[in-house]
Amino acid sequence: MSANANYKLIKKIKDDRFDEDKLHQYRLLVQLGVRDFQVAVVAESDKRLLFFEDYILSDLNSYTELLALIKNLFEAHPVLQAGFWKEVKVSIKNNKFVHVPTHLVELSASTDYLKFNAAIDETEATLSCQNLNIQSTTIFAVQNELADWLKGIYKNTKLTFFHQSTALIEGVLAYSKKVNSNTLYIYVDRFKLHILSVKNGQLIYYNQFVIKQFAEYVKYIMLVMKGLDMDQATSEIILWGYIGKSSPHYLEFIKYIRNVNFGSRPTHLGFGYLFDELQEHHFFDLYSLDLLSA
Fold first, then answer.
1. pLDDT at 1 exceeding the cut of 60
2. In Å, how far are 73, 168, 189, 281 from 28, measured between CA atoms?
3. Beta-carbon neighbour count of residue 111 at 10 Å?
4. Engineered SS bond to 136: which of 95, 131, 177, 288, CB 3.0-4.6 Å?
5. Could you write out the three-class secondary structure of 171-226?
6. For 130-166, what is each residue's pLDDT tens digit?
7. Which domains, ranges and CATH numbers included, belong to the chain?
8. CA distance 18 to 15
């Protein structure tokens, strides 16, 4: 591993009710990208978030370096290597995925579906997960070594792999029940932009965009709005992610789009007062992971 390869804990919150002797009553949520990593713990009894961490990972040169870094993080962590959680859900953040209507899916051909959207090689496994509410199956790639290593750690509990896009879709589907149908949902990720549209409980549009220049944020949003025949003056945009009212992203959005608001947390989870430190529109993808089931 590179001498400069490391991780930095950005934020940690531990509820007073968190008890390391009760891990068997908790769900562990893990979200892994190539540049960041989040952890959350949910109590099964009352769906309360008890523990949260957000890490930034250094810029790495290979998946071998990423795996070595994650192993180091796990080894130094007080609870991540525990094998007796009630359930473990792992969300993979990458651009190697495809969504297919479930009634059309032949899982034996998963790799063929995935090749429409991404190049994969022999070091990667092809996995799948579902959005049951819209009968959609997400097929995605994950490094074999990473998947096998996590399976080894959590061999004595229920472990399920999901894709970040699946969690975002499920979270937005739930959120859309309380807003009007002429709404565009945006998740500003680190280095990426996710855009979704839902009408009458059905997913109309989802895509993620890699952002290389600041101007691309608005460009992609405007392109999607035009494609969906949405009006800049009347359509609402709901924002989540790494963005605030004073951030350049937000200030640029409101130059072009009149009705921009921040989204809130998923309502299925409870949060103690310590989580007031986190803005409500942050980490929507991680929280929404808890809505998914195998």
1. no
2. 16, 18, 22, 21
3. 13
4. 131
5. HHHHHHHHCCCCEEEEEEECCEEEEEEEECCEEEEEEEEECCCCHHHHHHHHHHHH
6. 998 899 999 999 999 999 999 999 999 999 999 999 9
7. 7-170+269-289 (3.30.420.250), 179-262 (3.30.420.260)
8. 5
